[in-house]
């Protein structure tokens, strides 16, 4: 695949905090317009990797590019091409739905007619019609999730990065959220999403398993199940974890 067709590329990406290695020489490539699932338990290095790709944290070693922009040298440019949604949703609880969207429009320099049109598109996409004047803190987890996604999309990014976006959200809201994610990918937006839900992993085009900072394996859900002769991704992940532990690499 031509380099221009990759949304994100990382080579030997590493992050150390003193003697502790949070991310250990991760290499991966994410095709444009695809959904890439980043799987692993809490503390495995998913969020640290994501923050480096977003230009929010400087790698200790290795290199990475988002749309051919260097994640160390071109951090400000990258931020305008990436929509980032953290686990905590990054909402202002004392502002309304509309005011949160207004705030993020201002951050990205979107104003006037363009801002109004974009806000209406996102409110409709998220099903927030009629809730424009509702305070964010009064929304349920599922509605907050969709508002946070709308805020991350306000500047029409080419890449959407979601860090465990469905943690603590009910199953129905999770299903609706993933329907939206798939529709965005179908429109050409590249999606990197971290999760520890295996049913969500099945909905991804490609997935990578990370454990104690190391990327164990990556591929399509079908490829990985066939490779290990197992019926579901949870069994694949457990198999990989046991293998790492038996070889003495699963300890810090």
Structural write-up:
The structure is a single chain. The chain starts with 5 loop residues before the first strand and ends in a 6-residue tail after the last helix. It has helices at 46-53, 75-81, 97-107, 112-125, 141-153, 171-186, 198-202, 221-228, 233-246; strands at residues 6-17, 20-31, 35-39, 61-66, 69-70, 82-85, 159-163, 190-195, 206-211, 214-219. Helix 3 runs parallel beside helix 5 and helix 4 packs antiparallel against helix 5. Helix content is 38%, strand content 25%. The protein is built from nine helices and ten strands. Strands 6-7-8-3-9-10 form a six-stranded mixed β-sheet, sandwiched between helices. Strands 2-1-4-5 form a four-stranded antiparallel β-sheet, covered by helices on one side. The longest helix is centred in the last third of the chain and has 16 residues, at 171-186.
Low-confidence stretches: none
Mean pLDDT: 90
Shape: globular
Strand content: 25-35%
**Order of adjacent strands in the largest pleated sheet:** 6-7-8-3-9-10
What is the helical fraction, as a range of percent?
25-40%
- H/E series: EEEHEEHEHHHEHEHEEHH
Radius of gyration: 18 Å
- What is the number of helices? 9
The end-to-end span amounts to: 36 Å
Annotation, overall tally of beta strands: 10
Major sheet: 6 strands, mixed
Which structural class do the helices and strands define? alpha/beta
